[in-house]
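One such given next:
>
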Amino acid sequence: YSPHRAGRPGPFREKRRIPPPADRFPEKTVFADENKSVTYGEFLKTVQSIGSKIAAAGVYKAPVAVIAERSVENLAAMFGVLYAGCFYTVIDADMPAERIKAIFETLNPAAVLVTDACKSIICELDFGGTVLYYNEAAEYAPNKEVLREIRNNALDTDPAYVLFTSGSTGVPKGAVVNHRSVLAYIKWYADTFKINENTFFGSQTPFYFSMSVSDVFSTVYAGAELHIIPKTLFSFPMNLIRFMNERRVNTIYWVPSALSIVANLKVLDYIMPEYLEKVLFAGEVMPVKPLNYWRERLPNALFANLFGPTETTDICTYYIVDRKFSDGETLPIGRACDNCDVFAVKEDGTEAKIGEEGELYARGSFLAMGYYNNPEKTAAAFVQNPLNTAYPETVYKTGDLVKLNENGELIYISRKDFQIKHMGYRIELGEIEAAAYASEGLSSAAVVYDKQKDKIILIYTGRQKDASEIMNALKSRLPDYMLPQKIIRIKAMPINANGKTDRKWLTANYKNI
């Protein structure tokens, strides 16, 4: 720990009109997992201990890797790193050692903070730097003076975390998100969805996934309560709903695949989530059919489609569902969040008008700083605003294709890398998926492209159907050149580590299904 500018007031020293939740609700639960819960007062003491231990190890304003199972300890480790004036990267305990090594090559962490359950992972990594063990750090005597000095020297532009996503080349790239972006985003999130001390989150997403930022940070911002849902419960959805009822969960923010599991098995016909008031979703396209099932069973709940990449902290646009949609329609991704702006740019560099397709760009306080130790990728994605030649303004190219509808709502079309050239036409695979959902009996659908054989393949789950029946439904919605050459039924859609449909696996393995 080597502080500088000692005594200079930092951005976090401003007096707050409302005391922080740890002062207001010291005995209230803040986080809970399957086996353990922790109060605001207990959590604060633990993270101060961890922060003091990291500082005592001489680690300051540097990356710290957190290797932990998805638990209360994982969350305490993350906040402990922040208290030390450092920034964290959460490493999935189930991640293959080779991927962790690839992340470490880019991140070059100054220290690794590891829980007891994950100690064996360190041995596999051959990590030569500082290793701190969670139990020792959590029992370390807090050094309030050191922590105060760290806080006084903090800047809101200091990194809070580096979150690694899969790069197009297979090499992970780490988005660097600072405190200012997190604070700006969380204020919007909490204000928009009325997150407060009466909110009980049911957390589904892993902590190395950007969606978790919304639940975790809005919890401590607003004095809410967050319950980590065991991953295994999504294989037993009746027990999932029972867990939610036991924990009085009234707000969820899940990936559509998780919501679809409940809808496809018609779980809500047998047991209802008794307290659920808000259903938020993001991470992939939400099919309208399972959404309609949820809306019919919970007519008084708020449903919202959130959209954005890791590089905008989590979200840049949102749509609160305010009307009915048929099963084959596409749900809007809505409009820009407050203190954030988005616009679509056509291939000729001009702004797309209503009905015109363009690549989505984002600007504003939610933007990440770039990619860690990756200037080439940063320069390619974080660019000068093409619509502004008057002064320097960095914007983020999302790689998402969108268009504005007549209501002024953004409609997601597909990823640019989901767009293919087939029979001389440019085709968005997402459009084929949306059309497939209009076919009776389909529970889920994914469309992949075999570039080598120039084939479009539709893979689905649901009732056994003749391929011609599905094809007839597609013909009523799509031109001939967009029709799949092969239709495959599978028992269950493969899911990746983030809970999304695993399209890479399907593309590589569809011939063997």
